[in-house]
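chain below, 488 aa
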Amino acid sequence: MNYLIRSLCAFGLVSTLQSAAAELSVQQIKLEHPANGSVVKLKDRPLLLVSGHNVEHRWLSLVDLQNSQAKQIAIPKQLQFFQQAKLAKAGGAVQHAQLVALGQQGIWQYDESNQRWSLLTQVASAYPVIDQKRFSQLSFTEDFNNDQLTDFLVPDFAFWHVLMQQKDGSFRQFSLPMDAEVQLFREDPEFRLKTAYRLDFNADGLTDVLFQRDDQLWLYRQQADGSFSTQADIIPLGIGLTPDAQAQQRSGDGRDYKGLTVRVLANVQDLNNDKVPDLVVREQHYASALEQKYQYQFHYGQLANGKVVHGKTFDQQINTNGVQFDVEYKDLDADGLADFYTPAVELGIGKIVGALLSGSATVDWLFYKQRKDGSFGSKPVYQQEVEVAFSLSSGQTSLPVTAVLKNKAGLASLVKADGEDVLRVYAPVQAQLFSQKSSRQSLLMPKQATNLLVTDLDGDGDDDLVLPYGLQENKAEQRNQLLILRQP
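prediction:
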């Protein structure tokens, strides 16, 4: 009997029948504003932070998941981004997670007891001017030294500032040199910040800060006393990354895109669970300015004489068609290895004209399973299509709900909107990640799902799904709300 069950599971039959028997539970929470900004879950507390905006206003609400109530928080005009943090209190104890924000002058904290904002610490940033129509989350928090107190990593134009929180609530600041990239379009500048990777890159057990510039890595090491070196260790890679200036895609440079290849660093992460960071290079091949396809090359890290090294030639690769965005690297089948999945769209003159005429385009979700040898196979093990609609009159795009939810066992299910009022759930299948069959649940879907949140809301080990509804919904009663979907 056990052998029969295992065999049925391998083909997805048992898991599909089980998933069809139990729907996701639904909790509705009404808001006083659209939920078209960001959603953040406060750690260890049954609270969500939800932001939204329209053409004139911006809002932030604190949502209580236990009583389904929301209350607004006033946003001072000098604030731009929000996040959560654990701060020290008198006697060196750690407070519960609370709301903080980055804005003019520095980092601000919100006191829920008196509903007031106060300046926590001063620091310069790359956001000296505030966009009064937006208030969204930004990942500027980190616990670098694992002391349960939140530290901060704040981008600036010529530096990234590390602020290490002390037990008395003060901060030690270390400014790491790293220039932002700038492009000028007439007199208007456009700044692009470098990606700051936060990981242990030198295998000493401490979280460092890493940047890529040209074909080099710039490593800022954390020291044993919790300080950061402000002098970078420059690590030549020799893997043929395109120099930053050449990688910029700018019109008017006289560049012919036919046959052009651009190689950029796409990710730094431990993908094969050996505690050593790996490099992912995205190679972009252009047939023309509009037609391109991507290839992903994996350089697995190794320890040699106590140092992390990467080979100059890639170890494995993934060949794809079209253009990918929002690539994820996550273990979907509990084997300890990060799998690769991404939405992808094929570009070309014919595709673009067809999309303009029909008002929609097909996006393929591609899933590649990492094998024990680190390879991902020559084609995806699983694929699903979704239809993206867009309006030329409003300039809005409708990206339907598509998300991956993991259960207590670490196995992932795929959830996907099917039309306006159906949610489908594809259960875990070991060989191909998800079943080809799905369970069906009637539920009005949000039109724009780019800001949905997947997280474990109640600490039971199962991922939950937070669906925000905003201004694009057809029916007025569907706007200004959240739906919380929990696994059975």
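Residues 349-358 form the longest helix (10 residues). The chain has a mean pLDDT of 91.
thats it, cya
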